[in-house]
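Can't attach files on this board, so I'm pasting raw text. These are the components:
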Amino acid sequence: MSRAVRKTAGAEGWTGPLLSVEDLNVQFKTRDGLVRAVNGVSFELNAGETIAILGESGSGKSVTAQAVMGILDMPPASIPKGSIRLKGRELVGLSEKDYREIRGTQIAMIFQDALSSLNPVISVGEQIAEMYRLHDGLSRSDAKTAAIDVMQRVRIPAAAQRFGDYPHQFSGGMRQRIMIAMMISQRPQLLIADEPTTALDVTVQAQVMELLAELQRDSDMGLILITHDLGVVADVAQRITVMYAGRTMEQGTVDEIYDQPANPYTIGLLESIPKLAETVERLPAIRGLPPNLLQVPPGCPFHPRCPLAQDVCRRDPRPPLETVSEGHVSSCWFAKEVHARGGLRV
Amino acid sequence: MAVFESDPVLSESDPVLKVVDLAKDYPITRGILFRKQIGTVSAVDGISFELPRAQTLAIVGESGCGKSTVGRLLVGLERPTRGSVFVDGVDLATLSPKALLAKRRDIQIVLQDPYTSLDPRSTVRKIIGEPFDIHPSALPKGKTKKAMVGELMDRVGLNPEFANRYPHQFSGGQRQRIGIARALALRPKIIIADEPVSALDVSIQAQVMNLLMDLRDDFGLSYVFVSHDLSVVRQIADRVLVMYLGRLAEIGSEPQIFEHSTHPYTQALLSAVPVPDPQHQRERESITLGGDLPSPAAPPSACRFHTRCWKAQEICSIETPLPRQLLGEGHLVACHFAEERSMIGTAAGGGDQAQRREP
Amino acid sequence: MGRYFVRRLLQMIPVFFGTTFLIYALMFALPGNPIDTLSRGKPRNPAYLQYIIDQFNLNDPFIVQYFKYIGGIFTGNFGKTFNNVSVIDIFMQRIPVTLQLAATAFVIELVLGIALGIWTALRKGGPFDHLSLLATLLLIATPIFVLGYVVQWLFGVKLGWLPPAGIQAGWPTSYILPGFVLASASFAFVLRLTRQSLLEVFGSDYVRAARAKGLPAWTILRKYSLRNSLIPIVTFLGADFAALMGGAVITEGIFNIPGIGQQLYQSIRLHESVVVVGLVTVLIVAYLIMNLLVDLLYGVLDPRIRYE
Amino acid sequence: MSEFFSGRRETEALTDGEPVTDQLLDQVGEDAERDSQALADQVRRQEAEAAASEQLPVSGARPRSLLGDAWYELRHRPIFWVSSVVIVAVLAIAIFPNAFADVDETSSLTGGCNFDNYLQPPSSQFWFGTDQLGCDVYSLTIFGARPSLAVGLIASLLTVALGSAIGVIAGFYGGWIDAVLSRIVDIFFGLPLLLGGIVVLTAISFPSIWGVVFVLVVLGWVSAARLVRSTTIEAKGQDYVMAARALGASNSRIMWRHVLPNAIGPSIVVAVIGLGVYIGAEATFSYLGLGLQDPDFSWGTMISSAQEVFFQAPWTLLFPAGFLTLTILAFILMGDAVSEALDPKRQK
Amino acid sequence: MLRTRRGLALVGAAAVAALGLSACASSSTPGGDTTSSAPAGGGGTFSIAIEEPQNLTPSNCYDLYCFNVLNQMIIGIYDFETQDDGSIKPVPTDLTKAVSTSDNGKTWTIEINPDWTFTNGEKITAKTFVDTWNFAAYGPNGQQLGFVFGPSQLDVVGYDDVSDAKSPKAKTMSGLKVVNDTTLSMELNKPLGESLFANFLAGPQILPMPSTALTVSGSEDFSKQPIGNGPYKMDTPWTPNQSITLVKNPDYKGSTPGNADQIDFRVYNDDNAAWADLQAGNLDILGVSGLPQQALATAEQVLGDRYVNTAGALQFGYYAFPQQTDTFKNKDVRIAIRKAINYQDIVDKLLYGTATVAQSFAPSTIPGGGTDICGDSCVFDAAKAKQLLEQGGGVPGNKVQIASIQGADNSVRKAVCNQIQQNLGVACTLKMFPDFGAMLDAYAKLGAGDTGFILALGWGADNPTINNMIAPLFGTGAPSNYIGYSNKQFDELVARGNAEQDPQAQINDWLEAEKVLYGDFVAFATTFPNTNYGYSEHVSNVKINPQGFVNLAEIQVNGS
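---
Top answer:
Structure tokens for the assembled complex are below.
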């Protein structure tokens, strides 16, 4: 079931995109050198829309999310370049105090590991209720009522009784629901979900994804889904950004990306995952290993692993994002050719 | 489409591994001075299967279902509470400790986590060479340990020059190759692969899968492939055993399970696997199971799945369904209301309207 | 919880006997005759010797002495010193003094250690952090007797801020200097432990999540960071409080605090097994109880920890 | 895990962030059933961290052991270098005192004692001044290094050896062996070092440094044993031990080849820090008159006799105490640096 | 507590409890008015540092500290008085009417003044004394000082019958009789000279106790809060290890009531802490057993004339050569060792002049003490020493050892060793023993072929007589004769002196005995510690006698 992307006017009459990230660069200072974890990433998100940021470990997808959330530890991290605008308001360089007012109320984030993201020594109810007390100034008992409400909304059974329970007393799926309840309690306009279902069993994963979709439908929230799992993304997101070694490799609508990928890396990823519906003699694997971020190869970072790599790929500059069709860009010198081949096996 | 057209169980040769009514209970103890048992966790309860030569049996299920315990029972890391394991027709329980140690060579294991399954203080040479220290007779005549380690590394796609390095200097995929080389060293007949690729990145996962399949073909290995990932299982397995809370839900050949599943749990599992194809995914019929896996310390009565099953009726909580053959040969299902339903093809299988149940 | 409690209590029994036996054996192994030491080489009255020998079972084999002694303890009779002072009386005078000293030291290390630990963790890498690191390490590395004399001389004699010795001025005045000296090493450890475990918690997911929730820094520190770092600190403090009670030999000596440490040192030198074993027994019991309390406190601090 | 709750809380309870249900599963041996997704995720995060920060290039690196890694870490720490320089200097003094001061150390006249030179302040002749017996404090300080260091080195070495052996046995075999050993550890743990030391040193008399060494070992092994026991339990549960077991490795092989090398790491740190602590303990016992006895002397005995004159001749206290403090400090800093370098979770 | 006492440090590990006797009977005003009005300037409170007394029962009071306390609380038959020449002598107290002997010191009659009572109202009669002394001597009571009535001191007739610890034949000594309410008689086995008898009767063991205290449990209760008849009394039981508080006894019958209203005895286990307190003004008097070593260097500078350092505490250190081994067989060698030691230098530098080099075994504060007996043998002369050593054939292996106790401050002995090494060219080391007993055991076990070591010992006298300085140490079979010295001539001279009624003749006999000792030169006295103490500006007229007794009653609290 596909949903149309709704471009609705935001609060205060803002009509632009809910979030726009432009040329974001994030780097970490380490003893071994400067790690450029995110390198010129741009994307936009409208209210009610879901975009997915897809990538393997070390691709910079989580760092991007944390940069938007403003919870990177600076130092060692820094944002030397780029802009993040929430409904037109620049977030890069915002004071901690101002950022704090945005976090939790306008942007919220759920993390991959709900167990370690919940304070183990405070009851879950209290962890939710404190959002109401802090942001809405509710009294202790009102906050409790509100918290139980939101717990019910994310379908935690016997919410009132379980208010005083601690995170470890819940199953993985329930914990992630609590995390979601906490984060949507202030009805944020933007929710970032960083691998929200990676730690869950498939049956539970389906439950949680369904819940997220439902909440988003009800509240017209923008959702950024960070994941490495191409399957999870397929029916949830409208648009996808594929990242590799801190760079955007390809960006486009879900259908475009899956049907007509324009980047060899995306193709490699799609090919290499085993399909439930078919069996093959051999899985077409991407050769080699992802690069170390301290020593990203010059030119296209994917070139050592790319079957199409030519000399031009091995030299700087790296290929620019080339538009292959409307709203579909790819960073590859051969983007057009690849796109034209229509996702053929590489 | 499927690699194997015929049911491998029909193969004439004797199974290399036969498991009969395998069970493992863990005691729950409590006591002030002396611990006494106050209950049991039935981690594995009455699992039986046969593994023909050069084939792969996959055990699938959610976390906590007992699938890894089966692997560990097979490889001798745990003592079964009940049941027998036959390797080449020999019941392991009847062997003397010495003979058992020798027989152990035939079953090796590849563990789940490439980061913890290699001793961080040993070089790769020591790790891969250790099997020869323990079983000196396994070293082929006229070959040094060093040479064998080199060969093994080469075989699993590692540069033998790296033999002096330490595990942490390798990436996850490379480490898993080291683990595989170690398991291969003794030339086993059976390898228990316990979630061997679940910890790996997508692009690496395929490389390791391919390696495993190559090795199977080259050495005539038989695998018991423990996994929660049905997509992966589909690529490698000849037979699939679905477990739920320590018990068998359904067993059958790969096509039987994936295309003609009959157990509601198998169907739910299949339906929940996300498919990286937006169109297909949107059109798929989905069954969302309510609730979580119950605790193995207090499993539901009779059919353990009945608390989450949309087909459950009164009988399910009273009478334990025994594995029975419903469709093809070798396809057993433990459900009172088993019914075929295709969950993966675009051609929708008929059957009940999936109901949502909330716990 | 109840079962766990009982189990722990039962486990104390062998420890109790083992420790008292060990100490008793060691005291018994002390060379020379306690009476030699007691009478300092002066002529002795044979009648007096006999009296002492009878009263302290000195002619019995060691094992008999031990069980007579332990038997006495269980009937509430801790015996008497060679000076005819009841050991119970000694406990009654000494333990409150030592408790006051230990409590003073404890408060110093608790309050200062945790407060400065938080500060340095928040200012990690700053000049204050480095300075406190160096200062605390110096405190740890300086032998306590050197520190004791310096502190006594500087603050007690030279500056005259606080009484240099004795407990005449009562609590807290008399206990501040010795309390500080006694606490010095532990204080440094608490500071570093607090800093370290806070830094560990700062990097945790739930602190990150708390920031994502938009919580103020103080709330995060209090409800998230501190509460989760408390367990190692509590563990250390628990063990340390027991150690403070018995380990004050040197501090109590330098500052003339009539506490347990001082008594023990004297009694060891006088070969007064009765007092030594009695006091050590009390210390061991205190130590075991502290351990138990710390264990129980875990359950309060961390709901994840459940006992059986 | 029968001794799961027997007061080992420093490690188990602290490291156990898992939910109770998971704990239960662990206890009953279901740990293989760990959520593989969570694991995958954890590994992924490790890799991400590795990639994002400190790890080395996966390929092209020279072979390097864990210790090699630690060394790599250490080389980048100024504190490590400062403490190394101090330790090397002090060791050199302890091993070759004659290279630093040419006085016959076998006679009681070490330090060229001459009563005529009573309490001379530091000068070009007596760099550190003289003490109340007219002995050269510089020479005494130089020759006093050896016993001080020897006590620290030998005691911490023996402590770790004894403690590790017992800790590994208790942790590895568990059951009643563990129960008995743990109770013994508890017994010794309840005895404060100083107090026990006073009793033992009053009770026995060993020649030269051996009495102090004996006391430190007898009372000190327990902390190493506790630590190694818990790291052993941790190491025992690791997958690589399971892998070795699956290969058919014997208990002793697993214990010596796999568990011990992995369990002993933290106790090395304890040993380094303990070295400093033991040097200080020797000084304390000597201060109480229970440590080294004439004609042996150490920094501790020097401090002890200096306290009588330190108001009028502060140099008598200052130099030995300074050397003592500096040495202890160096070892503590070194232990600190090493522990951070060995810490798998090291965070920069 | 961390350092051994200075006195001990100086003379060795042995006996220096310096159980000396009291000094508070006023030295200048015998008699005086008996009114209870305090002299001008009376009142106020002062504090004095002591160590924890073992016991406050007189017959169990075997240390300086308890007797300093009891001395203010209970008046007995004799008391010590400091003479104008600085020496001390026992004199009868206000309670004593007369003491006389009928048969040259064998039978003694003691008459006391009537109407004295204990503070609990009990009358003090002759029976009080007889009962107290019988209690002390009775074996099963286990009193430490019972031996005073035995052969080593008074030797009362019938002592043997009561002294057995298990089953004595009698409960009372037959030589002790109540004549009437105020008169008692004491019959001795051997005659004693008057001064010696008086000395024996000036110790704590003879102090009277009320009848309630004369059982084992009664004496224990008594020890917690003694009841006496002296100028001060205890209103509250003492707080062990902390303090003992005395207040003025308004009913005191004696001629010289105390000045201050209250005396606080403060217990210090580490005298360095006491020194810190004295400097900080938290303590008034320190020095019952000398100032701590740490204080000596600066005491004069810090306290000015409130630091007192006078010669002649009743103690000495001595070195003894083993007689059973061949090591020190030659007397020249023994003298050479003494002559190689410059004690004056050691006293000046290490002890800050708080000791006097000994030329005999008795300090100048003892009647007849301070005589130069040793002569040239005890004079430092390095060259002569070396010559004597060669003359005597040297020492085997060219090395000597001096016994020391672990944990004691051995700096003086180290200095001695260094001097021997420097001046004689003989290697000298300290031989360490864990404690006094181990040292004596090793010494006793020495055989002829063994390498002998020099025993370094000390002695603190019970009473100010030359007899007490030598007889217990060198008399054949004497209790503290650790070196096993035996010389008939010496024994005879001592015994003759003991019985001598004429004080000067008595002293001469004892001096002769000392000469015999030095003639053999198996032992020599090294130094006599000085009496040194300090006090705060808060008090004046503080005097501590050579025995370590403080004239507490005479101390004036300034400003009151």
